[in-house]
What does this fold into?
Amino acid sequence: EKRRPLSICIAFLTLAGNRLIFQLFVLLPQRARPCGCRRFPLDPQVLISISQLSHIYAGTRKKTSHRALHEIDLDIHYGETIALLGPNGSGKSTLLRVLTTALVPTSGAVRVGGVLLGQDPPAVRRQLGVVFQNPALDGKMTVGENLRMAGLLYGMGRRAVRQRSQQLLEVVGLWERCNERVEKLSGGMRRRVELAKALLPTPAILVLDEPTTGLDPVARQDFWHQVEELKADEQLTVVVSTHLLDEAECADRVAILHQGELLVCGPPRVLQRQLGREILTLRSDDAAALQAALRSDMDLEGLVVDQDLRVPLNSDISLDEVFQRFGSQLRSLSLAPPSLDDVFVRYTGQHLEEGNAA
It folds into this structure.
């Protein structure tokens, strides 16, 4: 195999800065490989297996040690899209750093395609295409130049890079912008370029770390349309971290993380149905007192969240009866099917946006 010229690596590091230095460390194999090479046999059941995974960030003079992950057990199936849902600081990014070999966990085991993560990190990286939360493109270079440089560092031949770049840029609708500088593109277009860049070496797994941060709703919708199209074309397994409920609802499964722990994992609709047919939300100045009264008078169990009492219902309840009995204590009353936010509240005791604000 031919080694990459040292001059190319030096030029790349000079142009790209710290973010691409991190990308170089995470994604690139130690040796070049042919385009499209997949080392692992893809198990139709489990592609990524995470067992008892924990990580503690060591303390410093100014900061105490911090437990970012605690005994995470999770299997990710071949061909699925799984969303890691949680507020800022829940452990999502730490988990992705471990999966992409950028961070060695304190304890536990991760297997990708049957290969233990710590035994052969380069082989694992060759299975990954990663779109970082922060931009990882050189704005002064054109779209095509960014892809060509990345392709060469992946060990791909020039012809393979050219053909693959055209293929991917046509899918994401940016082939006509190939010779345009990245800095002139909109935020949504840049994310699509990063998506194409991540998929250059034909990975089996696409890892997305808060990929739509900073995008407007239209650009977000367009980005996810491109992801779904590429997932089908490339037969990808997609692992995405997000704090947005509407993004998580589109995944095959949602894994809710909170304070470094995995609380529940399952298809969004299944998790919602497990709460009951509907959620009765009662707002009161004294939600705790209302909770006790409902339990005593109507045998209903509810969860107090701020000034709201949220009561899952599995049978028909007369709202007139509730209002007649407790109307004097109520500021408002509503009834709606369970949402993914209701699931999050059920397991964490708070709304997702409250955790993000904190």
User: Anything to note?
Assistant: The domain at 277-337 is CATH 3.30.70 (Alpha-Beta Plaits). The first helix runs from residue 6 to 27. The first strand starts at residue 48 and ends at 57.
